[in-house]
Design goal:
Number of strands: 8
Strand order of the largest sheet: 1-2-8
Distance between the termini: 27 Å
Strand content: 5-15%
Order of helices and strands: HHEHHEEEEEHEEHHHHHHHH
Number of domains: 2
Shape: globular
Mean pLDDT: 87
Radius of gyration: 21 Å
Structural class: mainly alpha
Number of helices: 13
Helix content: 55-70%
Largest sheet: 3 strands, mixed
Length: 355
Amino acid sequence: MIFLIVVGALLGGYGTAYVASADVRYLTRAGIEETRILQARRPISEVLADSGTTPGLRHSLDLVVAVRDYAAGLGLEAGETYTTFADVRRDTLLLVLQASPRNCLCPYEWKWPIVGRMPYKGFFDPKAAQRAADDLRARGFDVYLRPSGAFSTLGWFSDPLLSTALTRDSVELAATVFHEIAHNSLYVRSATPFNESFAQLVGYRSAEAFFRSRGDSALAARAADRWHDEIVLGAFYTELTDRLKALYALGLDSVAVDSGRAAAGSWARAQLVDSVAPRLRTYTIGPQADRPINNARLVGATIYRSHLDLFDRFYIQHGAEVQRAVADLRTLMQGAEGDSAFARLARATGTALPH
Protein backbone atom coordinates (compact mmCIF):
# COMPACT_ATOMS: atom_id res chain seq x y z
CA MET A 1 0.00 0.00 0.00
CA ILE A 2 1.15 3.52 -0.82
CA PHE A 3 0.61 6.07 1.93
CA LEU A 4 2.85 9.08 1.40
CA ILE A 5 3.36 11.25 4.45
CA VAL A 6 3.46 14.89 3.33
CA VAL A 7 5.02 17.01 6.05
CA GLY A 8 5.10 20.74 5.29
CA ALA A 9 7.29 23.35 6.90
CA LEU A 10 5.75 25.25 9.77
CA LEU A 11 5.25 28.61 8.08
CA GLY A 12 3.72 31.84 9.36
CA GLY A 13 -0.02 31.57 9.87
CA TYR A 14 0.22 27.82 10.51
CA GLY A 15 -1.87 28.04 13.69
CA THR A 16 -4.75 29.65 11.84
CA ALA A 17 -4.50 27.12 9.04
CA TYR A 18 -4.49 24.27 11.56
CA VAL A 19 -7.79 25.43 13.04
CA ALA A 20 -9.40 26.23 9.71
CA SER A 21 -8.22 23.36 7.54
CA ALA A 22 -9.04 19.69 8.09
CA ASP A 23 -6.30 18.81 5.59
CA VAL A 24 -3.69 20.66 7.64
CA ARG A 25 -4.85 18.89 10.80
CA TYR A 26 -4.78 15.56 8.98
CA LEU A 27 -1.26 16.09 7.63
CA THR A 28 -0.07 17.28 11.02
CA ARG A 29 -1.34 14.09 12.68
CA ALA A 30 0.21 11.99 9.91
CA GLY A 31 3.51 13.80 10.33
CA ILE A 32 3.45 13.25 14.09
CA GLU A 33 2.70 9.54 13.70
CA GLU A 34 5.40 9.11 11.06
CA THR A 35 7.86 10.84 13.38
CA ARG A 36 6.93 8.47 16.19
CA ILE A 37 7.43 5.47 13.94
CA LEU A 38 10.80 6.74 12.77
CA GLN A 39 11.88 7.46 16.34
CA ALA A 40 10.91 3.91 17.38
CA ARG A 41 13.12 2.33 14.70
CA ARG A 42 15.90 -0.04 15.65
CA PRO A 43 18.31 -1.56 13.16
CA ILE A 44 17.17 -5.10 12.44
CA SER A 45 20.75 -6.27 12.98
CA GLU A 46 20.55 -4.84 16.51
CA VAL A 47 17.23 -6.56 17.22
CA LEU A 48 18.63 -9.87 15.97
CA ALA A 49 21.67 -9.47 18.22
CA ASP A 50 19.47 -8.78 21.24
CA SER A 51 19.27 -11.88 23.47
CA GLY A 52 15.80 -10.77 24.53
CA THR A 53 14.34 -11.05 21.02
CA THR A 54 11.72 -13.80 20.91
CA PRO A 55 12.25 -16.81 18.60
CA GLY A 56 9.18 -15.87 16.55
CA LEU A 57 10.35 -12.32 15.94
CA ARG A 58 13.88 -13.56 15.21
CA HIS A 59 12.56 -15.97 12.57
CA SER A 60 10.50 -13.22 10.91
CA LEU A 61 13.35 -10.73 10.89
CA ASP A 62 15.81 -13.30 9.48
CA LEU A 63 13.33 -13.90 6.66
CA VAL A 64 12.89 -10.16 6.03
CA VAL A 65 16.66 -9.62 5.81
CA ALA A 66 16.98 -12.46 3.29
CA VAL A 67 14.01 -11.19 1.24
CA ARG A 68 15.37 -7.63 1.23
CA ASP A 69 18.75 -8.83 -0.01
CA TYR A 70 17.06 -10.89 -2.70
CA ALA A 71 14.98 -7.89 -3.78
CA ALA A 72 18.14 -5.84 -4.22
CA GLY A 73 19.55 -8.65 -6.34
CA LEU A 74 16.47 -8.42 -8.56
CA GLY A 75 17.24 -4.78 -9.25
CA LEU A 76 14.39 -3.51 -7.07
CA GLU A 77 14.99 -0.23 -5.27
CA ALA A 78 15.36 -1.69 -1.80
CA GLY A 79 17.43 1.26 -0.55
CA GLU A 80 17.15 1.46 3.23
CA THR A 81 13.61 0.10 3.29
CA TYR A 82 13.15 -2.59 5.96
CA THR A 83 16.66 -2.33 7.39
CA THR A 84 15.05 -1.22 10.65
CA PHE A 85 12.19 -2.51 12.79
CA ALA A 86 9.57 -0.54 14.73
CA ASP A 87 7.19 -1.96 17.29
CA VAL A 88 4.10 0.25 17.05
CA ARG A 89 2.66 -1.43 20.16
CA ARG A 90 -0.82 -1.84 18.79
CA ASP A 91 -2.65 -4.34 16.58
CA THR A 92 -3.79 -1.89 13.90
CA LEU A 93 -1.41 0.63 12.38
CA LEU A 94 -3.97 2.74 10.56
CA LEU A 95 -7.42 2.66 9.03
CA VAL A 96 -7.93 3.14 5.31
CA LEU A 97 -11.08 4.86 4.08
CA GLN A 98 -12.59 4.39 0.64
CA ALA A 99 -15.88 5.68 -0.75
CA SER A 100 -17.98 5.53 -3.90
CA PRO A 101 -21.42 6.77 -4.98
CA ARG A 102 -24.16 4.13 -4.65
CA ASN A 103 -25.00 4.37 -8.36
CA CYS A 104 -21.48 4.38 -9.79
CA LEU A 105 -18.25 2.45 -9.34
CA CYS A 106 -16.42 5.75 -9.14
CA PRO A 107 -13.92 5.98 -6.31
CA TYR A 108 -14.00 9.12 -4.24
CA GLU A 109 -10.53 10.62 -4.63
CA TRP A 110 -8.31 12.74 -2.45
CA LYS A 111 -5.76 14.95 -4.19
CA TRP A 112 -2.31 15.38 -2.68
CA PRO A 113 0.98 16.97 -3.72
CA ILE A 114 3.48 14.73 -5.52
CA VAL A 115 1.42 11.52 -5.62
CA GLY A 116 -1.61 13.07 -7.34
CA ARG A 117 -5.10 11.64 -6.87
CA MET A 118 -5.58 8.73 -4.49
CA PRO A 119 -8.74 6.58 -4.12
CA TYR A 120 -8.14 6.02 -0.42
CA LYS A 121 -7.09 7.93 2.64
CA GLY A 122 -5.23 6.50 5.64
CA PHE A 123 -5.99 7.59 9.21
CA PHE A 124 -3.85 7.01 12.27
CA ASP A 125 -6.71 8.38 14.40
CA PRO A 126 -9.64 5.88 14.49
CA LYS A 127 -12.09 8.56 15.64
CA ALA A 128 -11.12 10.84 12.76
CA ALA A 129 -11.48 7.91 10.36
CA GLN A 130 -14.97 7.13 11.67
CA ARG A 131 -16.01 10.80 11.46
CA ALA A 132 -14.84 10.99 7.85
CA ALA A 133 -16.64 7.74 7.02
CA ASP A 134 -19.85 8.92 8.69
CA ASP A 135 -19.68 12.21 6.81
CA LEU A 136 -19.34 10.49 3.43
CA ARG A 137 -22.09 8.01 4.29
CA ALA A 138 -24.41 10.87 5.26
CA ARG A 139 -23.72 12.40 1.84
CA GLY A 140 -25.00 9.23 0.15
CA PHE A 141 -21.75 7.37 -0.49
CA ASP A 142 -21.00 3.72 0.06
CA VAL A 143 -18.03 3.64 2.44
CA TYR A 144 -15.46 1.02 3.38
CA LEU A 145 -13.13 1.38 6.35
CA ARG A 146 -10.45 -1.28 6.72
CA PRO A 147 -7.28 -1.79 8.76
CA SER A 148 -3.81 -1.77 7.19
CA GLY A 149 -0.60 -3.03 8.73
CA ALA A 150 1.93 -1.63 6.26
CA PHE A 151 2.52 1.30 3.93
CA SER A 152 5.19 2.75 1.70
CA THR A 153 6.52 6.31 1.65
CA LEU A 154 7.88 5.70 -1.86
CA GLY A 155 11.45 6.03 -0.63
CA TRP A 156 10.94 9.48 0.94
CA PHE A 157 11.81 7.92 4.29
CA SER A 158 13.68 4.75 5.19
CA ASP A 159 10.57 2.69 5.83
CA PRO A 160 10.96 0.45 8.87
CA LEU A 161 9.42 -2.99 9.08
CA LEU A 162 6.40 -2.51 11.34
CA SER A 163 5.28 -4.99 13.97
CA THR A 164 1.79 -4.92 12.44
CA ALA A 165 3.17 -6.50 9.26
CA LEU A 166 4.44 -9.61 11.07
CA THR A 167 1.08 -11.33 11.59
CA ARG A 168 1.42 -13.31 8.35
CA ASP A 169 2.77 -16.66 7.24
CA SER A 170 6.17 -16.86 5.54
CA VAL A 171 4.78 -16.47 2.01
CA GLU A 172 2.64 -13.47 2.93
CA LEU A 173 5.46 -11.84 4.88
CA ALA A 174 7.88 -12.27 1.98
CA ALA A 175 5.28 -11.05 -0.53
CA THR A 176 4.55 -8.00 1.64
CA VAL A 177 8.22 -7.01 1.74
CA PHE A 178 8.57 -7.42 -2.02
CA HIS A 179 5.27 -5.56 -2.55
CA GLU A 180 6.29 -2.51 -0.53
CA ILE A 181 9.78 -2.38 -2.06
CA ALA A 182 8.16 -2.59 -5.50
CA HIS A 183 6.52 0.79 -4.83
CA ASN A 184 10.00 2.31 -4.54
CA SER A 185 10.92 0.80 -7.89
CA LEU A 186 8.02 1.97 -10.05
CA TYR A 187 5.35 4.55 -9.33
CA VAL A 188 2.94 6.03 -11.88
CA ARG A 189 1.30 9.25 -10.78
CA SER A 190 -2.51 9.12 -10.27
CA ALA A 191 -2.61 5.41 -11.18
CA THR A 192 -3.27 3.64 -7.88
CA PRO A 193 -4.84 0.44 -9.33
CA PHE A 194 -1.88 0.08 -11.69
CA ASN A 195 0.66 0.67 -8.92
CA GLU A 196 -0.96 -1.72 -6.46
CA SER A 197 -1.56 -4.46 -9.02
CA PHE A 198 2.02 -4.15 -10.24
CA ALA A 199 3.20 -4.53 -6.64
CA GLN A 200 1.02 -7.64 -6.29
CA LEU A 201 2.78 -9.21 -9.27
CA VAL A 202 6.20 -8.36 -7.86
CA GLY A 203 5.18 -9.54 -4.40
CA TYR A 204 4.06 -13.04 -5.27
CA ARG A 205 6.28 -13.77 -8.28
CA SER A 206 9.36 -12.56 -6.38
CA ALA A 207 8.36 -14.65 -3.35
CA GLU A 208 8.05 -17.66 -5.61
CA ALA A 209 11.54 -17.11 -7.03
CA PHE A 210 12.97 -16.37 -3.58
CA PHE A 211 11.76 -19.60 -1.98
CA ARG A 212 12.80 -21.61 -5.01
CA SER A 213 16.30 -20.15 -4.72
CA ARG A 214 16.40 -21.45 -1.13
CA GLY A 215 15.36 -24.94 -2.21
CA ASP A 216 11.95 -24.60 -0.53
CA SER A 217 9.72 -25.96 -3.29
CA ALA A 218 6.66 -26.13 -1.02
CA LEU A 219 6.67 -22.41 -0.19
CA ALA A 220 7.58 -21.53 -3.78
CA ALA A 221 4.54 -23.48 -4.96
CA ARG A 222 2.35 -21.80 -2.36
CA ALA A 223 3.48 -18.35 -3.55
CA ALA A 224 2.69 -19.32 -7.15
CA ASP A 225 -0.69 -20.66 -6.07
CA ARG A 226 -1.49 -17.44 -4.16
CA TRP A 227 -0.77 -15.44 -7.31
CA HIS A 228 -2.99 -17.85 -9.29
CA ASP A 229 -5.79 -17.27 -6.77
CA GLU A 230 -5.39 -13.49 -7.02
CA ILE A 231 -5.83 -13.72 -10.81
CA VAL A 232 -8.95 -15.89 -10.37
CA LEU A 233 -10.42 -13.44 -7.88
CA GLY A 234 -9.47 -10.54 -10.13
CA ALA A 235 -11.46 -12.09 -12.99
CA PHE A 236 -14.46 -12.58 -10.67
CA TYR A 237 -14.38 -8.96 -9.51
CA THR A 238 -14.07 -7.77 -13.11
CA GLU A 239 -17.20 -9.70 -14.10
CA LEU A 240 -19.11 -8.43 -11.07
CA THR A 241 -18.10 -4.81 -11.62
CA ASP A 242 -18.94 -5.07 -15.32
CA ARG A 243 -22.47 -6.17 -14.36
CA LEU A 244 -22.80 -3.25 -11.98
CA LYS A 245 -21.42 -0.74 -14.49
CA ALA A 246 -24.04 -1.91 -17.00
CA LEU A 247 -26.74 -1.48 -14.34
CA TYR A 248 -25.61 2.00 -13.34
CA ALA A 249 -25.34 3.10 -16.98
CA LEU A 250 -29.13 2.68 -17.36
CA GLY A 251 -29.79 5.80 -15.30
CA LEU A 252 -32.44 4.11 -13.16
CA ASP A 253 -34.08 5.59 -10.08
CA SER A 254 -32.81 4.67 -6.62
CA VAL A 255 -35.41 1.92 -6.08
CA ALA A 256 -34.48 0.18 -9.33
CA VAL A 257 -30.77 0.60 -8.59
CA ASP A 258 -31.22 -1.00 -5.17
CA SER A 259 -33.12 -3.90 -6.76
CA GLY A 260 -30.38 -4.36 -9.35
CA ARG A 261 -27.68 -4.26 -6.68
CA ALA A 262 -29.51 -6.96 -4.72
CA ALA A 263 -29.67 -9.15 -7.83
CA ALA A 264 -25.96 -8.60 -8.45
CA GLY A 265 -25.22 -9.55 -4.85
CA SER A 266 -27.17 -12.81 -5.24
CA TRP A 267 -25.27 -13.61 -8.44
CA ALA A 268 -21.94 -12.87 -6.74
CA ARG A 269 -22.66 -15.17 -3.79
CA ALA A 270 -23.62 -18.05 -6.07
CA GLN A 271 -20.63 -17.43 -8.33
CA LEU A 272 -18.18 -17.44 -5.45
CA VAL A 273 -19.42 -20.76 -4.12
CA ASP A 274 -20.13 -22.60 -7.38
CA SER A 275 -17.47 -21.27 -9.77
CA VAL A 276 -14.70 -19.42 -7.96
CA ALA A 277 -14.17 -21.62 -4.90
CA PRO A 278 -13.40 -24.84 -6.83
CA ARG A 279 -10.59 -23.08 -8.75
CA LEU A 280 -8.85 -21.60 -5.74
CA ARG A 281 -5.71 -23.34 -4.51
CA THR A 282 -4.90 -21.56 -1.26
CA TYR A 283 -7.92 -19.47 -0.30
CA THR A 284 -11.10 -20.99 1.09
CA ILE A 285 -14.57 -19.66 0.42
CA GLY A 286 -17.25 -21.01 2.68
CA PRO A 287 -21.00 -20.37 2.66
CA GLN A 288 -21.59 -16.74 1.78
CA ALA A 289 -23.61 -14.49 4.03
CA ASP A 290 -26.26 -12.23 2.56
CA ARG A 291 -24.01 -9.18 2.31
CA PRO A 292 -25.30 -6.25 0.24
CA ILE A 293 -23.31 -4.73 -2.61
CA ASN A 294 -20.96 -2.01 -1.42
CA ASN A 295 -19.32 -0.06 -4.24
CA ALA A 296 -16.55 1.24 -1.99
CA ARG A 297 -15.64 -2.29 -0.88
CA LEU A 298 -15.59 -3.41 -4.51
CA VAL A 299 -13.37 -0.50 -5.49
CA GLY A 300 -11.04 -1.54 -2.67
CA ALA A 301 -10.94 -5.14 -3.84
CA THR A 302 -10.27 -4.24 -7.45
CA ILE A 303 -7.50 -1.73 -6.70
CA TYR A 304 -5.19 -4.65 -5.92
CA ARG A 305 -6.57 -6.91 -8.67
CA SER A 306 -6.79 -4.76 -11.79
CA HIS A 307 -5.74 -6.54 -15.00
CA LEU A 308 -3.52 -9.00 -13.15
CA ASP A 309 -3.59 -11.21 -16.23
CA LEU A 310 -1.86 -8.44 -18.21
CA PHE A 311 0.90 -8.13 -15.64
CA ASP A 312 1.38 -11.88 -15.64
CA ARG A 313 1.46 -11.97 -19.44
CA PHE A 314 4.12 -9.26 -19.44
CA TYR A 315 6.08 -11.28 -16.86
CA ILE A 316 5.88 -14.46 -18.95
CA GLN A 317 6.85 -12.56 -22.08
CA HIS A 318 10.03 -11.59 -20.23
CA GLY A 319 11.09 -15.13 -19.58
CA ALA A 320 9.21 -15.41 -16.28
CA GLU A 321 11.98 -13.31 -14.72
CA VAL A 322 11.00 -10.57 -12.30
CA GLN A 323 14.16 -8.57 -12.91
CA ARG A 324 13.67 -8.37 -16.69
CA ALA A 325 9.96 -7.68 -16.42
CA VAL A 326 10.37 -4.85 -13.88
CA ALA A 327 13.25 -3.24 -15.78
CA ASP A 328 11.30 -3.18 -19.05
CA LEU A 329 8.10 -2.06 -17.35
CA ARG A 330 9.92 0.88 -15.80
CA THR A 331 11.12 1.91 -19.25
CA LEU A 332 7.65 1.41 -20.72
CA MET A 333 6.04 3.61 -18.07
CA GLN A 334 8.32 6.62 -18.39
CA GLY A 335 6.08 9.67 -18.66
CA ALA A 336 2.89 7.67 -18.07
CA GLU A 337 0.16 9.01 -15.82
CA GLY A 338 -3.29 7.78 -14.80
CA ASP A 339 -5.11 5.38 -17.13
CA SER A 340 -2.40 5.64 -19.77
CA ALA A 341 -0.37 3.14 -17.72
CA PHE A 342 -2.80 0.27 -18.34
CA ALA A 343 -3.17 1.32 -21.97
CA ARG A 344 0.60 1.03 -22.47
CA LEU A 345 0.68 -2.34 -20.71
CA ALA A 346 -2.15 -3.63 -22.88
CA ARG A 347 -0.39 -2.58 -26.08
CA ALA A 348 2.86 -4.16 -24.91
CA THR A 349 1.11 -7.47 -24.28
CA GLY A 350 -1.00 -7.36 -27.45
CA THR A 351 -4.22 -7.18 -25.45
CA ALA A 352 -7.29 -5.05 -26.00
CA LEU A 353 -8.59 -3.39 -22.86
CA PRO A 354 -12.37 -3.54 -22.34
CA HIS A 355 -14.11 -0.20 -22.79
